[in-house]
Amino acid sequence: EEQEEPVTDEEEEQEELVTDEEEEQEEPVIDEEEEEEEEVVVTDEKEQEEEEELENYDAKADSFSGKLQAQHNKLDAVERYIDHLSVWSEKRLGLNHSYTDQFKELYVDLEELRQTVNEMEEKLKKKEKEVTERVKEEVKEDFGSKENINSDKVWNIQFNADLSAQAVDQLNFIVFDEEMKVVPVQVSYDEVSQSVSLAPEKSYNSGETYTLFIAKDITSEQGIGLKQAVQMNFTIE
């Protein structure tokens, strides 16, 4: 009985050593797998999220100025994506001059696009200011207010004569939001019914009040114009 105990102790020690060795061997494998996962810069899921984010920028924009701001947001998202790729390529490929030059060119292109958007914003602000000042100064016939309007409402404005091609212009049919910013709408003319349709490019915001403005400059084919401009407020349900 006294001889059996040392044998049992040795077996237990051997088992413990084997277990320790197995654990020591397993741990580095797990660490390597974790490190590999951390090095993946852009997964398919992440790339899809980036694409959805880019698509949503335009969808959320409810004015022309908002659309331009959406372009800034898109460029910021693209720059973040390029940053990720730049870091990844440096880790994987080292400071390869051909790749670094390509990234530099991309950053230059991004800056040029930003400058273009900035210039467009300045032009838009100037144009919107001219339009809003004209609307405020012009004598208007008030058609009152309408409540509980559908968010995708298409306004149909019928005339008693054919309109000239110049009359069917977005500057003659304008929708403003509560901040007097121009809201993008699609303007179309039906010669048969002699009516102009105004459809929102994006659904109107629930609970907000908008102003539909029709300029006095509208003329028929015979050169007959409106006596005065027209405006109407409408609130979305």
UniProtKB/TrEMBL annotation:
Disordered: annotated segments: 1-62
Biased composition (Acidic residues): 1-56
Coiled-coil positions: 103-141
Keyword Cell wall biogenesis/degradation included in the entry's annotation: no
Domain of life (superkingdom): Bacteria
Pfam families: Big_5
SbsA Ig-like domain segment(s): 147-235
InterPro entries: Cu-Rt/internalin_Ig-like, SbsA_Ig
Keywords: Coiled coil, Signal
Protein name as catalogued: SbsA Ig-like domain-containing protein
Origin organism lineage: Bacteria, Bacillati, Bacillota, Bacilli, Bacillales
